Every structure is written in structure tokens, then in C-alpha cells.
Amino acid sequence: MKVKKAFNLIYNSHRRSVSKNYQHNLALVFALKEINGDPNLLPNITLGFRIFNSYFDAKMTYKATLSFLSSQHQFLPNFKCGALNTLIAVTGGLTSLISAHIGTTLSIYKIPQLIYGSFSREQLMLPSMYQMVPSEATQYMGVIRLFHHFRWTWIALFAQEDDNGDRFVEVLVPMLSENDICVDFIARLPSQKYVAHDGDDFSRHKEFFAAYFDNKANVWFVYGEDSSMLSLRMVLLVIPFLSFPPVHKVWIVTCHWDFASVSVQRVWDIETFHGALSFTVHSSQPPGFNRFLQSVSPSWAKGDGFIQDFWEQAFSCALKLSTVQGDNKEMCTGAEKLDSIPDILFEMSMTGHSYNVYNAVYAVAHSLHAIYESIFKCRRREEGKIPEICDVQPWQLHHFLRSIKFNNSAGDSVCFDENGELNIGFDVTNWVTFPNGSFARVKVGRLDPHAPPGNELTLNEDQIVWHRTFNQVVPLSVCNEHCPPGYSKEKKEGENFCCYDCAPCPEGTIAQDEDMVACIKCPQDQHANIKQDQCIPKVFSFLSYKEILGIALALLSMSFSVITALVLGIFIKHQETPIVKANNRSLTYILLISLLLCFLCSLLFIGRPSQLTCLLRQTAFGIVFSVALSSVLAKTITVVLAFMATKPGSRIRRWFGKRMATSVVLFCSFIQAGICTIWLSTSPPFHDVDMHSATGEIILQCNEGSVAMFYYVLGYMGFLASASFTMAFFARKLPDSFNEAKFLTFSMLVFCSVWVSFLPTYLSTKGKFMVAVEIFSILASSAGLLGCIFTPKCYIIVLRPELNTRDQLIRRRK
After folding, report:
1. Which of 271, 301, 424, 756, by CA, is between 20 and 30 Å from 558?
2. Which residues, 6 or more positions from 548, have their beta carbon under 8 angstroms from its beta carbon?
3. Architecture category of domain 137-254+259-281+426-470 in CATH
4. How does pLDDT run across 457-488, given as a tens digit for each residue?
């Protein structure tokens, strides 16, 4: 049998005219009913309660608080009459101002105060306060995460016109700036209960909307408690009378806000708030609560001073006990059901604030239970003593409240942190309104302050319903359009940092995302695409056998090589004929073989460069070409000496012969071979990669190692060519068989022309085209020597053999 020892749990109610908040009272009653019927929680102890109204007035709040401390039906603070009415704890209030008024008095007596509504501990730091709502700092962090998630950088702020609103602006605006979010404007909401509709008030509203209506911000963030929110709704109600179109914005609101309306506001349109997002106190539905609400009736409990006003407000009828006359209301039957009331007046599901009341009652009950368990353990240690129930002082509850942790009937864990704040987060709620004035709360996310940094906010974006004007597209709320990829932000002078121009990225840089502050360079092995929004790998560039240019040059090289081999074969076959014997057959064979190797040397320049090919390219080409030029020079010298040797008494005859020609070829070739040997031993060519010369390409090339040695090789070949051309030019009119001097002159003229034009072209190109220029010069100069020197001879040998006789040779000389 339970001992009728009552502990009065005091509750602070909202003003009478808001019927929705009556659910807070019912949550308190439901919780106490469950606790008193639970044999495992506070057995033999009955918890009672008293409810006082603050009327949103400081004087009435202090009066009600002093009534907490007085005996029932007597206003005598500090005077206890009877042990059955011991004050243990207070839950309240709904607003921060009321909570502060209560706390200043209760803190003197160290009575626990469990605040179920909005409150900032910075307002009043009292150890006796316990906050059932997470701190406002958590909400601010969640708002920042929400803005970042939807990339909203241009917002409007609405704050109630009091100290709390000032504190909100002072804290949040710097946080927004630090997170690259700008405030378009800040508007203050009046906190009075009602908004007058006289001429001055309409003028003030018109000025308000004229200043803020045409702004770019599509997101309006509102900080305000019920009174300021009611004022906002009244202001929005008069918009049609001010010649303004309806407000279609995304409303972001804090947990203080609710669609709480008085009876006269049930017909007010709430379509403006369709698609609003709010951080709401986490709530669950305790088992049996809905069934409990359905049992509520005007006569369901005695001593309820709020049921009459709630019933008349909710159902727009008059009870028999009503003293209101002349309002022409129908009489209430008392059988009305709460589930028939629009949600804007009363909700059948437990709201966040009611859930806080429910948890606050259970927190006190579990703390009391822990106290009595500790007392019973001490009493049982004394033999022969029967455990007795002794009075518990409110101050004793603090230690147990701060360490209490339990799971409520809805399965949620309840515990306080070291600051006396409930250790939970917020739900992200999407408010969906309907034409009939009802609405639905849709949970679309969760704000968990204990999650890893950056993951505090989770959203199910597919479930969010936006205002109808946005056509279910995520609204933009920016000062200007986002800079697309490939562009970076450029600050506008004299404007907010959220307002900027978009400048294209410089060449070689990219901007992968929208609104990048600066373009970034690609890695060396990548380059920017045409749109400059991503880096793509560079392709390897070299003169390949697979491309047309490489194939063409290779075919030319092989063709000239075959032609040279055929010419050599013709000369070997007809080696005993006068035309072959006329100008030193050995030099002719050396020249043809060197030309054959020159054509084949060009193949070293085609294909992917390697260390071996890089070593052989220039050196092999230089030596082989020097042999060819030395042979031409020896031929020219032979022509000149042959003419001079025919003069009577000439001493040059003894110099004239094969040994002289061979010595010239060997001597000149050895000089070039020596230069190449020095080059290879000091600073040889090597395989190199050029990532910067060509856009989008990695040039695989052979680095000459020593550029000076490369030009020494070319310079020496130029010297041999110049010497050969000079001697051939002066000997062109000498009487000679088969015009040998003229042909040598033409061949060297072609050779020198090719290589004089080679240098500027070579230096002005890059990559594979530079290689192609050198190959073309090799082929052209070699083909010039082959054609000018051997074409006439082959013509006579093959097509005019009758001219290839000794008689014709003597006749030509004469």
C-alpha cells in the first residue's frame, strides 16, 4: 500500500489563450500517472503537482514562484504546514524570460529547476538550473551546417526585439562571416502580444516590407519565441492590405518556434510557411499517450484550472460553467474529441516541449528513487531498524540529477552533462502546410553535436518539400549566380564579400568546383581541358612510326636507301666502264655507302627515344655525313689535281693518285669522329622529358647534353660543305669528262641550301616537328648529293651505253 506522501512538482504554464500549449500540462499529468502506477519506481510514494500561470508578466511570475514556497491556499513563503506537501522541483518555463524570473528566486533555496523551453545559460548562470533543451550554440552550429549543405550564402535574419535577440545577432553574425555566409539585412520582430492595426502601425509595416521585400535572399532565418512569432504572423497577415505580393521564402527557424495559434487565428493562412525548416527538440511518442489524450474531457479531473479555457478555445464553444456572455457560442457537449481539432490549435502527437516536460518529471522521479534506495541501504545496516521514509530536501536532489541516466518508456536515453544540459541533439523538421489550415511535421534530418566534426548534420534531402514557388528545386539564396567550373571569384569593390564577379581561369589553371576563390595549376603530367574545369593526363609526344608523318619519312628513308643501293649495284656491275673509272671508283663507292648510311641514320630519329638511340642519333649522323662530305671534297680535289697534272712540267702529278684521296677522306672523317668522342665522353646526349613546351603534351626527346658540341658537329660539317662547294665552284669550267666538276658544284649548292635553311627552322620548332625538320634536312641533302652526282652517270650507264666508251671520254676531255 502506497503511503500518501506527496511531493508537489510545480509546473509553469504558458498564457491561457494558446490552446496548443495545454498539451504541456497533459504531458505532466500523464508522466505522473505512469510514475504513481509503477510499482518499481518510487514504491509507497505518491508524486503530486501544482500548476501556476505566469501570464507572461514578471510580477505574476514572481508571485507564482513565491506561491511555490507557500503552503496550499496560503501565501506564506518559507512556512511549511504539513509534511505531505514538500516542494521537490520545478519545471518551467516555456520562455527564457520566465525561466530567468523563476530561477532568481528558486536559486536562493537551491530548488532544482528543469527548464523545458528555450533558455540560454549565458543569461543567468545558476547551478540549480537544468536545461531540457540543448544549448543554443548547438543550434547555431546546425544552422551553419545547413547553410553550407544547400550552399546558401546570402540570408536575412529576423530576431526578436529584446536582449535575447541582441545576443543572437551578436553571436551569429560573426559566425556567419567566418563561414563565408553574408547577411542581407537584419530585421527586429516586436515581442508584444498583439499588433495594433491603426494608421501608424500600417505605415510602419509598409516601410518594413518596402525596405526588405525586394532583397535577393530567399532564405529568412528567424529567431524568436512564441510572442514574437505571433507578431510575425500578424505582420504577414496585413501584407495584402499593403499592396505587396505574398512572401515566398524558405523560413529557417529555431526550436522556440511553433505553429501555436489562439482560437481567432485558426482561419489565418499559414501557406507562407510551407516548406519551412526548423531545428526541433527531439521527441518520441510514449506508449499510451495518444490513448490518454482521447480520454481527456472537461470533467476528467478536478482542480484543473485550465481545462475550461482550453476547451472553449479549441472547440469554439462555451461550457456550462462559462461566464462569458454575449459571444453567441454554441454550448459544448463535453464529448468533443481532441483528435478533431486542427493541428494548429492542438496536436495529438507529443511535441518536443511536451516531451521535455515528460522527461523532466521522470528525471526527478528517478533521482528521488535513487535517494531513497541509498537511504534504505543505510537503514538496513542497523539491526532491528525498519526502513522509514524521511523528508528529502530539494538541495539533495542536485547530486543525483547530475548523475542520473535512464531510458524512458519511448526508449530514449536521458542524462545531463556537466553543465546541466540534456545530452541530446535536435531533429530537423520540414513543415508541410495544407489548404485546410492543417500541417504536418516531417522529420528530414538529425543534428547530433557529438558526431565527428563535419558530420553533425544529416539530411534526407529527397524528403524535403520546398515552397510551391520553387517547384521542388533546391532554392538559391546567393548575392549573385555561382561561378561555374572554369571560373574563379573576383571581388567587387565596395560590396559584401558574398557579391563577386566571375573571371575565367588563366591558361594552364583550372577551377573544378563552383565558386572557387582561385584557380589552381594542374600537376606537371596533366593539363587543363578546354573548359578549364578539370585536369586531364598529357599525351606522350614523339615522332612515331604509327603516325602519318613518321610513316612518310620512314618510307622516304627506305626508298632513298634502296635507290642508293641500286646505284651502288649499277656502279659495281659496270665498274670497268670508263665513266666509273673516270673519277676514282673507291671514292664513288665510299660516297654511295655513306649516303646509304645517311638515309638509314634518319630512322634513328623516328620512334620512342631511348638512351641508345639518343647516343647514336647525332653522333652517327655527324660521322657518316662527314665521310660523305669528305668523299665529295676528295672528288673535287681529284678533279682539280687531274687538270693541273696535265700541264707540262707540273710537280702535282706525284700527288695525284688514290692514296691522296683516301688520306683526305680519312683525315676529315677522323676529325669529326674525334669531336663526337669528346662529346660522348664529356656531356653525352640523354633521354629527356619536356612537360612545358607544348600544351597537353609530354615531349619525349633526346637532350643534346652539350649544345656547344652539337653545334661543333654541325659547324664542322658546314666547314667541309663550304670547302667542297668553293673548290667545286672554281673548278666548274675546267675541261672534264662527263662534266664532273659541274655536278659536284650543283650537289654542294643543294646541300648548303638545305642546311642553311635548317638552322632557323630547327630552332623555331619543338617536339616531334623539330625531329621531322632534321630528318627532312638529312634526306634532302643526301638526296641532293645522290641526284646531282649520280643521276647523270646512271643515265649514261643504263640508257646511253654508247656514250660510255674510251673514245667519248677522250673526245669530252679535248
Report:
1. 756
2. none
3. 3-Layer(aba) Sandwich (3.40)
4. 999 999 999 988 888 788 988 888 888 999 99
3-state secondary structure of 686: strand
Kindly report, residue by residue over 497-521, the tens digit of the pLDDT: 888 999 999 988 999 988 888 999 9
Across 234-284, where does the E strand assignment appear? Answer: 250-253, 276-281
Fold held by 3-133+351-415: Rossmann fold (3.40.50)
* Domain locations along the chain: 3-133+351-415, 137-254+259-281+426-470, 303-337, 487-537, 548-656+721-813
Residue 756 to residue 317: CA distance in whole angstroms: 111
CA angle 294, 298, 302 (to 5 degrees): 110
d(CA 581, CA 579): 6
Written as nine digits, the cell of 512 is 573544378
Query: Would the pTM count as exceeding 0.85?
Result: no
What are the angstrom distances between the C-alpha of 19 and each of 26, 296, 460?
12, 14, 32
Whole-angstrom Cα distance, residue 255 to residue 118?
A: 8
The alpha carbon of residue 210 and the mean position of all alpha carbons in its chain are separated, in whole angstroms, by 37
The alpha-helical segments, DSSP class H, found in 306-396 are 307-315, 352-380
Residue holding cell 667542297?
Answer: 724
Cβ 475 vs Cβ 461: under 8 Å: no
Give the Å distances, CA to CA, from 707 to 225, 425, 615, 702, 703: 81, 72, 14, 12, 9
